[in-house]
Amino acid sequence: MAEPRDTVVLAYSGGLDTSCILVWLKEQGYTVIAFLANIGQTEDFDAAQKKALALGAKKVYIQDVCREFVEDFIWPAVHANALYEDRYMLGSALARPCIARHLVLIAQEEGARYIAHGATGKGNDQVRFELGCYALCPSIKVIAPWRMPEFYQRFPGRRELMEYAQKHGIPVPVTPKAPWSMDENLMHISYEAGILENPKNRAPLDLYTKTCNPTTSPDVPDELEIEFEKGVPVKVTNTRNGVTHRSALELFVYLNDIASKHGVGRVDIVENRFVGMKSRGIYETPAGTILYHAHLDIEAFTMDREVRKIKQGLSLKFSELVYNGFWYSPECEFLKHCIARSQQAVAGTVHVSVFKGQVYILGRESPHSLYNEELVRLKEYHRLQSKVSTKQDE
Amino acid sequence: MAEPRDTVVLAYSGGLDTSCILVWLKEQGYTVIAFLANIGQTEDFDAAQKKALALGAKKVYIQDVCREFVEDFIWPAVHANALYEDRYMLGSALARPCIARHLVLIAQEEGARYIAHGATGKGNDQVRFELGCYALCPSIKVIAPWRMPEFYQRFPGRRELMEYAQKHGIPVPVTPKAPWSMDENLMHISYEAGILENPKNRAPLDLYTKTCNPTTSPDVPDELEIEFEKGVPVKVTNTRNGVTHRSALELFVYLNDIASKHGVGRVDIVENRFVGMKSRGIYETPAGTILYHAHLDIEAFTMDREVRKIKQGLSLKFSELVYNGFWYSPECEFLKHCIARSQQAVAGTVHVSVFKGQVYILGRESPHSLYNEELVRLKEYHRLQSKVSTKQDE
Amino acid sequence: MAEPRDTVVLAYSGGLDTSCILVWLKEQGYTVIAFLANIGQTEDFDAAQKKALALGAKKVYIQDVCREFVEDFIWPAVHANALYEDRYMLGSALARPCIARHLVLIAQEEGARYIAHGATGKGNDQVRFELGCYALCPSIKVIAPWRMPEFYQRFPGRRELMEYAQKHGIPVPVTPKAPWSMDENLMHISYEAGILENPKNRAPLDLYTKTCNPTTSPDVPDELEIEFEKGVPVKVTNTRNGVTHRSALELFVYLNDIASKHGVGRVDIVENRFVGMKSRGIYETPAGTILYHAHLDIEAFTMDREVRKIKQGLSLKFSELVYNGFWYSPECEFLKHCIARSQQAVAGTVHVSVFKGQVYILGRESPHSLYNEELVRLKEYHRLQSKVSTKQDE
Amino acid sequence: MAEPRDTVVLAYSGGLDTSCILVWLKEQGYTVIAFLANIGQTEDFDAAQKKALALGAKKVYIQDVCREFVEDFIWPAVHANALYEDRYMLGSALARPCIARHLVLIAQEEGARYIAHGATGKGNDQVRFELGCYALCPSIKVIAPWRMPEFYQRFPGRRELMEYAQKHGIPVPVTPKAPWSMDENLMHISYEAGILENPKNRAPLDLYTKTCNPTTSPDVPDELEIEFEKGVPVKVTNTRNGVTHRSALELFVYLNDIASKHGVGRVDIVENRFVGMKSRGIYETPAGTILYHAHLDIEAFTMDREVRKIKQGLSLKFSELVYNGFWYSPECEFLKHCIARSQQAVAGTVHVSVFKGQVYILGRESPHSLYNEELVRLKEYHRLQSKVSTKQDE
Q: Which of A179, B205, C232, D275 would disulfide-bridge A194, Cβ 3.0–4.6 Å?
């Protein structure tokens, strides 16, 4: 055991890796506070808490950040119709700054000078965590064991981690590890690495966990009315049974349920990581996929054509920044502000059908649509704005 | 009958409108040459030819431009992943410059000073036809009866057209007109106006003609291998039965068949027209939808990340120009060149599943992919380019 | 004399053309109200007023809009570092929407249904006037005599205008017309057409009226301190004599004086007009040129790098819109808002030297510069924003 | 002396820093080959060669790369009207990849596995050198002593370097070091750091070395005719004395002379470095400044408006990439290709006057200008292209 050092807040997942990191940090002399965000993933939070305490964490924070995740992170992405490289809905990238915010808040509350995470040195998440933490608290120091030779040389493979776990009383998973890695939250689940790394290999049928297989999903669609105000959904109604949800979190969860039931939101892509390599990822983003289509539709219906074009350029940039971990950057805040400004009149109801992996737009209506068969764009705009009150003399 | 004027080449469709225009142009003293492009629409071309001659056309040109349409117009759109306002695949917009090219060629061959078309004064097609014709032949004069008071005041509604038709021996359609307007070609069919004009109204189930209803489409997917070279498909194989197509036109027709069978390619959108109003359109673009997804995938797999970003911006501009009728503009030619340049190494095979209205990417492979787990972007790029031959001394 | 029609507000300049238009409009049966904006041009406003009344104007409005021109139109251009095609500072384009606003206000006050102007059918100003008027008041009707055959066929040349003037008691200019046309306001003067039309011809030395010839301008520079807040100048001090100006209009006039004295602001360019042709223009923009350089400098000094890049793209679009007359469009208002947002922390003082046609930046300082030799961008940004209060424990 | 290692090619400048690095590398056991590019800087190359050999370099390469620098690096920047952050002409950034190319070629020829440079860890040049070298030869290893603790801790200040120099027989400069750092080449000289670091401090009058002071420069302008083909200058004539230059290098040198004589090309700016900090720099770019203005003019005169807009966006990106050291990246090569494509018809002669720090455009002419008073853009474009041969029947 090294001499006492300082306090570190560890982004703890409850799994083998971060459990070993917890013990290893203690070995290095740190006092460890574990933080586990409930951001919508499938997890036994009570068990994780007990486990972390048993492994020597001085304190364990488990916080439900789901509502905040939806309102402060997913909604701006909905505003932007955010897609990275035309396809990835940014489910992991949006979760990182939400978690980073809490890591920093806890570090500040606890007077900890260090934050540690279990992300590897080849992925995007290390960058997202660290840029977030450093931006929010420039004096913090981030410990990334998977980038430290004293750690990764000690644990070259899973076998060494297992041995270390057994030696230190870390509970070892009884089920065999899936031959790929996963990251789940309220918005999505990702699968990558392992047997998926070869981009030619098909995803096994039993890989998917968040959506049903479209080949066996129901033969009858669900139909929804999704009402938007200022570019975000404020009400969802299932027209087949009248079920209605109004709050951000509740309606998002409901859309997840419906989309999941009908197999909506699966994509298999190759993307360009921040660190410069291409990577194959498979994603399920159920509610996000419905909202992407519905928002695109109500936006096109209510937004001026030329504003839309400018906003589209801003959104491309926004998506790239979010993917690369720059959520807390001045440029991302600037873009968020501008994009939100463009959404002021994005309001109305979109009717959608959800069926066999697809979202179909059936129709839309809006209290202040720019849709008008007779008038041209500029005149119509100013009629709606009533900028100049005119004598309607003809 | 007015005094003899000059020769006009009429973009003839065989329908009521352009038949009346043909007769009306003769009334105005013009010698009329009818041109009907076979661009993949459902049409009895022989009957149309006979009809035009019977109505007094001096000559009738019927030309099959399908192969040219695919290779010279659809392929550049595939290069660009062209979408107007994130959703419309530009099926009509791509066909117009193809037709305009032939109108001009015939006018030049026949020594005609005029070209006439039946597009209305509220839509995009008048602009696309006319910009195309004027660009290719600045000395031509376009006659657009639906913008001429002497024509539209004489035919304020369908009833007046019908009366005129009966009076002049123009065969009147026996089936009632669909309560919307359609435009079909090899790539797509569009439905708009009439009962669809209210964006809230759902499309009737019997509207669709080019794709099956996903609720009744087959319960077994088709799986395809689509091979690309320089960013365009060069071979399509159905892995379930080994059926293979290689030429541009044949493989496109086959993809239309497969997509149609599985209900792929339906969208219902509101778009911003060039002339400044919003318009609701419903589209079926079967093969185009499969190719959009497949090309997006092989491109992401083989193109450098930063080149992709620049190319994406160029494609947005390209799509807008095509929509607005600027195919034959210097900026569109510049963009086509730059985008084609970006496709030089876009090659490989994408495996897709087509099922219930959806296109699923299953995997991809490429002879020169940039996909590499160990090396970063720049190094990898130059390894592939072999720009500098190095002594591989480590 | 035609039968009485309605009231028209005429954008009156006091010159031969609009004087003839005034009389001609009366001939057509209109009641004419003349509006002459004092937007900083050299003009005998009293004489112009008397002349218009003598010619039969029912009423003459002469309004000093200089302050409004600076604050509402020139300042947004300073925010944007607005340049059209890298060189033109938009002096005329910014004045048009300012004038249009007052034309519409007077029309509304007077119950006039028509607005008339003397811009030709080949230039940008017709578009700028008309888009502005229609946007602000969709029900207005614009009369553009120079586009009406009954007017331009009657006045094919200057000789016919002179004859008409003599016949109708319109005072004819005694000095010969300059062999080019000019447009002047507080921000600039433009020269074009006539002998300048050939882009190879040099501008005559005696053409320039708003700036001294650099070959004979003073041999001693003036040095200024220009203080900015929120991206616009709030104080100008001449460090050689302590002269200080603080209000927008006064400091702008003073910068015009200094720049004019040193021959600053002359450019000779070929630009692309909205209507599709290239046009040669010579401009003098004295104060605007100093402010362009000073604002560029303080902005670079205080704005985040990545925000600057995004803002630069928005500014390019803004400049193009302003040039093309879209000031009162939704997209221009959106851009103005976003650009203004980017200027919130653009504050500080720039030291400049003005000498022999050049503006030299000598140095700059700012209360909240991002300039910092040790810290990187993101950390520095958040230090300034103090978004998260941290225990400064190291 | 450490054990023999391997061969390193050192980017040698002849100054104190790289002389010490040369000796230090030998101390570390490397065989050192010195490379000194003659890229237009003021330098006694013979003396530098002798010095390097005397200090123990196994071999010294001195290569004149001036012509290559102009043709392969400056010309693409002229094509692009390349400016970083609206003001910096990229003089240093363009030189680095030219030097890097030769470093790699020599390393490959000599079988060296290492390249070393004397750039600091805070600037842009380290990035530019290293990205260039790694891109051209992924297997090379770069040694950057100023980023290595064993080096920078040994030489915390200039005093320690001087002591080391005296101890190892390295000739010590007799003149005191300027209180700022400089980087010179054929295109420009930069001044930064030291007393210039405070952005408020004025540049001393005696700082400038490459251009005359405009206050004392000649009272009579020089007038030049600059002829362009495919967007680059091919002939420069001084109309006052008939002096003419035609080759790339010769005309560039001549433009440097003329610009220098009239004090053209000085700027004082604050820029954003790649590594994230703001930095004040003073630059003299004489010939580059003349060419910037002249090319801007001939381009505006001959290029289609909409192509120009697209090309402008590409150029912004190009400038940013060059500044950040990505010359040899796939995206930079893509942009260079596209920009060059846009220059195909950029040809003609620009008349400029050079006087007291300013470049004035006096006029321009071109064999294939798009300038035309009567025809609109698209028609004119196709007239020039003669895409479709038409019967000119009206």
A: A179
